[in-house]
Amino acid sequence: MLVPVPNSQYTGMVLLQILVAMVMAQLCESRYVMYLTGQHNIIPEPRLAANITHVALAFMPSSRLNEPITPLEWPLFTTVEAVRNQFAKGTSVMVAIGGWGDTQGFSTAAATDETRRLFANNVKAVVDITGADGVDVDWEYPGGNGEDYGRISNSEKAWEIEAYPKLLAAIRAALGPDKIMSAAVPGLPRDMLAITKNTIPKISKSLDFYNIMTYDLMNRRDSVTKHHTGIQLSLESIDAYLAAGVPVEKMNLGFAFYVKWFRTDPGADCATHPIGCKTLLLEDPVTGDDLGRAGAFSWHDEVPPDLRKSFSKALNEARYDDVGGGTYYSDSEENIWWSWDSEADIKRKISTIVEKKRLGGVFAWGLGEDAPEFSHLKALNSYFETKGGGIFKDEL
């Protein structure tokens, strides 16, 4: 039997169509996750939110899930239904559990088979009653280095490293395979105590994706200035997860819709060497308590009065570090280091990290934090809008 062989021009057209279809399929599968927070419960007009694939409502306290409870005891700042109605059809709405400083509830939950089962069943009940599409587990952090590190040593929490994947597995078993399950995970390698080559295969079986918090990469535990969400440090974070065995398609790169500031040492030469310059002591070295020499605020927040003059200079005289990949300003008069992502930085990180590393998606903390202009959201939107017209979700 003779089979006709198509000419080379026809073959080329077919291959091109297949390639385009593959690229579009990959785009359509790209995740675009937004945390919607109780502090800034603001949702932009439908046009700006059309490409968002997942919304995580932050937060539900983990401790509420350690005892038998009733639906009336499940505190959320809004309802899943109310949020779902403000986004495009097909947008998944999730409940985020935990958050910074919320560690004890997870520790209690992870301790035994019985406590894990109780916690997991309560998570399922939350999803069932609220109508959520899944949950985001935000334990900061299993194994230590959390907000309570000054009171509870990492050695006392070492058992959590092996208990963490067990807790996630219990939640997945309770939810079943059809619900979405993600986890917010640390951006700094020093905090990745539970992210190991031994634990990651177990963790990945439970999770649909990882929200890698590639922000707050400078915090009160540092003693010299650096970018809190720069390209270089973000790449180091992604590479650490790759080395641990996290599938690249399950990784979401994190973006911060807020500004951070730190007091620098007046005796240091920050005017000449702004990056890597010595800071003041930013927190109590014993208790970890905040000494009031560092902070953050969102683009929606009012700038604190004592910082307005310095921040105005920062916006007008901002610089970009080509090495570390971050926008900054070092105020040598008031001795303040400023660090944030500009709209241009967001686009650079998309091309330098998300596209080059072929990550599965992006996320940001948080949606309302970028109000009222939503300029950083627009910068993220451009990633989807310039790649063949977006994710093609139905309008509201």
TrEMBL record:
Query: What highest taxon heads this organism's lineage?
Result: Eukaryota
Parts forming coiled coils: none
Listed GO molecular functions?
Answer: chitin binding; endochitinase activity
Q: What is its EC number?
A: 3.2.1.14
**Class of this enzyme:** hydrolase
Q: Which residues are the signal sequence here?
A: 1-30
Domain GH18 span(s) in chain numbering: 30-387
Key words of the record: Hydrolase, Signal
GO CC, sorted alphabetically, is: extracellular region
Could you tell me what this protein is called? chitinase
Q: Record the organism.
A: Calycina marina
Tell me the lineage of the source organism. Eukaryota, Fungi, Dikarya, Ascomycota, Pezizomycotina
